[in-house]
Design a protein that fits this description.
The protein is mostly helical. The chain is built from eleven helices and three strands. A three-stranded antiparallel sheet has the order 1-3-2.
Length: 236
């Protein structure tokens, strides 16, 4: 029984660590945690209302993903992504996702594509309701589930990693300006083209969508330079 209790405790700690890591990624994407700023594990833990240990472990996970970097005796600095990085991430995603979408359009059963419609509608609804976390989560599920129809798990992992590293900046400002909704609606357009069997149209839509996302990055960085919102999670 003692071993079982210990195992349950470890599982609970790992789950908390994963939950904190997820919350921190969302804060990075939404702009609550700002590039270049240093945050301490105790400071963030106080905002979460938990001990510093799972926060520190979660930050180490993010460091391995390249999202933050340790700062000795201070905490973790949110890494900044420059324009060259963003261009290269977009180029790689385009090389992977555009032809994959074309292949899926040719081969995927209609019912598997149609099953993605509720997720695409969820993205649009979240954008309309200014639910940034819901928007990002639904967007992630749509893209990775769609790519998963190609049957290549490693491809999905690679794109998932690129998405983490090429996070959106200043999403709050973009949401307030109404710029997110057009990008959200492109998911429904893409799905309709794929269901119609329009390979060329689907590839063109995906190319345009990734370019749109890249422009959101650029605009988000500009807005981030103009505004200095206080982080809801708190700085160290």
């Amino acid at each position: 029984m003692g071993h079982l209790k210990q195992t349950n405790l470890i599982t609970a700690q790992e789950r908390l660590r994963d939950q904190v890591a997820h919350a921190l990624r969302a804060a990075l994407i939404s702009g609550e945690l700002r590039p270049g700023e240093v945050y301490s594990a105790p400071g963030l833990a106080a905002d979460f209302g938990i001990s510093a240990t799972p926060v520190r472990e979660a930050m180490l996970d993010l460091a391995r993903e390249g999202l933050v970097e340790p700062v000795r005796n201070k905490g973790f600095r949110v890494t900044e992504v420059n324009e060259r990085d963003l261009d290269q991430y977009t180029e790689i995603r385009t090389l992977i996702e555009v032809p994959t979408v074309g292949r899926i359009t040719r081969s995927a059963p209609r019912e598997e594509l149609e099953a993605l419609r509720p997720v695409a509608e969820e993205i649009v609804s979240a954008a309309r309701e200014h639910d940034l976390i819901g928007y990002l989560e639904a967007d992630r599920r749509f893209h990775l589930t769609l790519l998963g129809l190609a049957g290549n798990e490693r491809l999905v992992e690679a794109v998932g990693e690129l998405r983490k590293r090429s996070r959106l900046y200043g999403l709050t400002a973009l949401d307030e300006s109404g710029e997110l909704l057009p990008s959200a609606e492109e998911h429904l357009e893409l799905l309709d083209l794929m269901l119609a069997g329009d390979v060329e149209g689907a590839e063109a839509c995906m190319t345009r969508h990734l370019g749109h996302v890249r422009s959101l990055w650029a605009e988000g960085r500009t807005e981030r330079g103009k505004q200095h919102p206080k982080s809801a999670l708190g700085a160290g």
